[in-house]
Amino acid sequence: MVGKVSGQLEVLCIVLGTGEVTNPIALALDDVAFPPLNIGGQNVPSPGKSFPSTAQSTVTGSLKPDVIVAELWQAYTNYMELLAPEFEAETARLARQRVREEQEAAYQESLRQDQLKAKEKARAEEEERIERERLARQRDQQQTEAAQRRLAVAASLPREPPAPNTPAAKAFLARPEGAAGITSLRFRLPRNTTVTRPDPNQSTLLRRFAGLDKLQTVLDYAESQGYPVSEYKLLTTFPRRDLTTLDRNSTLADLKLVPQETLTLEQR
Question: Is the pTM of this model over 0.70?
Answer without folding.
Answer: no
